[in-house]
Structures are given as C-alpha cells and as structure tokens.
C-alpha cells in the first residue's frame, strides 16, 4: 500500500535559468510535491513521530531549490528529489512538479514546467 502526502502551490523566488536576467533578478517558481509513503501507522497512532513533517518537507524543498542556481528546471527538481529522499527515510518515492509561469518564451501560455518522479529503488 502506498499513501500520499502532498504540498501544492509552494511559491519560491529563485534564480534558475539560462538567460542572464533570470540569474540576476530571478523569478517566482511554483512547486507541487507528492510524497509516497505508508501512512498506516500514523493513521492509527496520531503521532507526528510516525509520519513525515510537512513543515520539514517544505523547509528541505525550499533550501534545496534556492541554495544553488541551476540552468535547468530538471536539475533544480532533481536536487529537491535528492534532498527529500535523503532526509525522509519514510518516503519511498517523490513526484515533483516545477512550474515556471514567467518563463521567457515568446508566446502566450498559462504555464510551463517539468514533472519528475524519483524513488529509492528504481
């Protein structure tokens, strides 16, 4: 059985991108997370120690996403996945969506971004 903890709409200002102004000024990114884990124990015990702290997940995600400037969203999302899997042993896999709503693309669009899924055992 796999259950899911999710965080949606996490807004982070960072300096990722290939263009100079993206790394100088930065922009807003929006991150959605799905953490796949077994929630059977905390659903019975009602103890934080038996689950994954949402606050800790957000802090880990924010640090991993902001601490280094990457050219590619793929790499930034990979850093988040690595950090989550390293810091939260209860998480079996993580799905990360990174939205870049103000990407420098000469077109009218609602959203652009990437989605990746990483697990402990590929």
UniProtKB/TrEMBL annotation:
Pfam families: FolB. Keywords: Folate biosynthesis, Lyase. Its EC number is 4.1.2.25. Residues 5-118 form the Dihydroneopterin aldolase/epimerase domain. Pathway: Cofactor biosynthesis; tetrahydrofolate biosynthesis; 2-amino-4-hydroxy-6-hydroxymethyl-7,8-dihydropteridine diphosphate from 7,8-dihydroneopterin triphosphate: step 3/4. Belongs to the DHNA family. NCBIfam families: folB, folB_dom. Catalyzes the conversion of 7,8-dihydroneopterin to 6-hydroxymethyl-7,8-dihydropterin. This is 7,8-dihydroneopterin aldolase. It comes from Bradyrhizobium diversitatis.
